[in-house]
Structure formats: C-alpha cells, structure tokens
Design a protein that fits this description.
Helices cover 68% and strands 0% of the residues. It is an all-alpha fold and 176 residues long.
Length: 176
Amino acid sequence: MPRLTRLTPDTAVGASRDLLADLVSRHGRVGDMVSTMAHSPAVLGGYLQLSRAMGRAKLDRRISERISIAIQVRQGCGLCLDAHVDAARALGVDEEEIARAREGTSADPAIAAIIALGLQVHREPASITDEQITALREHGYSDRAIADVVGVVALNVLTGSFNLLAGLTPGSDTDE
C-alpha cells in the first residue's frame, strides 16, 4: 500500500506543480513514481535531470538494463525490477540473459564484467581496482561507457529507494 499520496498539477505546489504540469502537457499523464516524487521538488527535479542525462549515455541500453536488473534484485524494488525486465525484453534481451542478469552475470564475459562493476559500484565502490578498469577497456568499453555505469547505478538507487520508501509496488502504474 502506498505510504505517500500521488500529487497532480492541481494538488502540487510551487516547483512541483510546474514540473508536473509540464510533464502532463507533454505526455498526457505521469505515473505513480513521478506523481509521488512531486512531494519533493528537489527529488523530482533531480530524478528528471538524471534520467534525461542518462538517456544520452554511451553505454548500450541492453547492457544498462541488465545492470539495472542486477541492482534491483539486490535492492528489492519489485516495481523497478519489473520495469527493467520489460525494457530488456523490449530491447531484445533473451530470457536466459535476463535470468543471468538477475544473478549478476552474463554469458558474454564483457557484459558479465560490466554488470559486476555496476554491482560493485552499488555495494562497495572503494574496492574497485585499476585492473578491473583495464580489463573493461580490454573488453572494448570506453572510459565514457565505464563512467556511465555510475549514472546507471545512481538512477537505480534513487528510483528503487524512493519506490520502497513510498510503498509503490508492482501492479501500480509507474514511469520507472
């Protein structure tokens, strides 16, 4: 059961009202997460900016969705996990690779290595080694793609943590 109420452009105030009104005018509606984030204009604005910025990431989206799946399995946000599994399927990631992503790996050693990096950024970034970064470069990842992993992780921590705090669960309307 949701712990925080959804807001609309009519019930939100200040910057949140403006952000929601803009989103509704452009998209027709917003989902539970965004409408609930509107309680904090700082959180909503930060989410929207980071989400837009990550839309320009160099890291292949089929890979970033697998990183997101691995993180959400560990973070426990079912709403985010469902959204990322659906996105991975829509991008053509097969069921075996989705299952591997849930386990934090891939059959492709290069993808397994970058998923492992994402999990490490999430759990214990201080333990990342120079050798890991060198190995990722040897797998063909650019420094930009490697840096994008931090953004993928940060976006997942933000959305997953928010949804868990707000009590948003699978089956509710979302924009994750």
